[in-house]
């Protein structure tokens, strides 16, 4: 612990320095979603952030964890060499008030969506197969986030190849439509967009919609398809739920018939399809 405290001895001062790029400590706390009383302890050195909060603070101010622990003069010299706007996180950008308003508009209603889901969609690499993934909507501070995990095995020239994808994202609820913006935190080269609504009015146990993606790492071409979310509950046995995930043939008994029916595209015209009612 002594070594840890020694390595963090410059953190309170350096944190106070980057906070000066904002109009007030209250603004910083509000944007970080960290309790003001707790944040004051970080500033005074009476307490140190958890690893999770340290990641959030460093990401917010655009510095590395090693940098924010540098000796005071070295840290000042470092940030003075960088554009001042880097530390403001686009606080004054014209789109920020609109984004904040969208988040706040559906924040309370999102509570009913919290929990675990099975997520079903057609594989981009194997269109006659269905991916069954585990999806989660949770809350950190006052904001919600999503975590989606899919893992399965594919036959790669006679040997089994394990495939695992993880997407982190942000949910925004507007009226009764749930919008998801997700990205691959590993490769950081894929972003997906999904629009969902309750299959039955007034219920959120089955969500249907359309999601976009790219066909694969080697392709730039986007793709889109129907998607189904099946609610498992606010809590679940994660290992057991993950064991039910995988890549399944279209007629596999691991995928219910009603799910397959929902995944089929309903042609509206030659140029458009929609989700089956």
Percent of residues in beta strands? Answer: 35-45%
The percent range for helix content is 25-40%
Query: So what's the oligomer here?
Result: single chain
Radius of gyration: 22 Å
Total domain count: 2
Shape: elongated
The CATH superfamily of the largest domain turns out to be: Quinohemoprotein amine dehydrogenase alpha subunit, domain 2
Q: Please count the beta strands (DSSP E, at least 2 residues each).
A: 11
Strand order of the largest sheet: 1-2-3-4-5-6-7-8
Number of helices: 10
Largest sheet: 8 strands, antiparallel, barrel
CATH class of the largest domain: Mainly Beta
Span between termini = 59 Å
The CATH level-2 architecture of the largest domain is identified as Beta Barrel
The fold-level CATH name of the largest domain is Lipocalin
Structural class: alpha+beta
> Helix and strand succession?
HHHHHHHHEEEEEEEEHEHEE
Mean pLDDT: 84
Low-confidence runs (pLDDT<50, min 5 residues)?
Answer: none
Describe this protein's structure:
The structure is a single chain. The protein is of the alpha+beta class and 277 residues long. It folds into 2 domains: 2-92, lambda repressor-like DNA-binding domains (434 Repressor (Amino-terminal Domain)), CATH 1.10.260.40; 109-274, Lipocalin, CATH 2.40.128.120. The protein is 29% helix and 35% strand. The protein contains 10 helices and 11 strands. It has helices at residues 2-7, 11-19, 25-32, 36-44, 51-61, 65-68, 72-80, 96-105, 238-243, 257-263, and strands at 115-122, 129-140, 143-156, 159-174, 177-183, 191-198, 206-214, 222-233, 246-249, 266-269, 272-274. The strands form 2 sheets. The chain has an 8-stranded antiparallel β-barrel. A two-stranded antiparallel sheet has the order 10-11. It is elongated. The relative contact order is 0.11. InterPro entries: Cro/C1-type_HTH, Lambda_DNA-bd_dom_sf. It comes from Mesorhizobium hawassense. Residues 24-68 form the HTH cro/C1-type domain. This is XRE family transcriptional regulator. GO terms for molecular function: DNA binding.
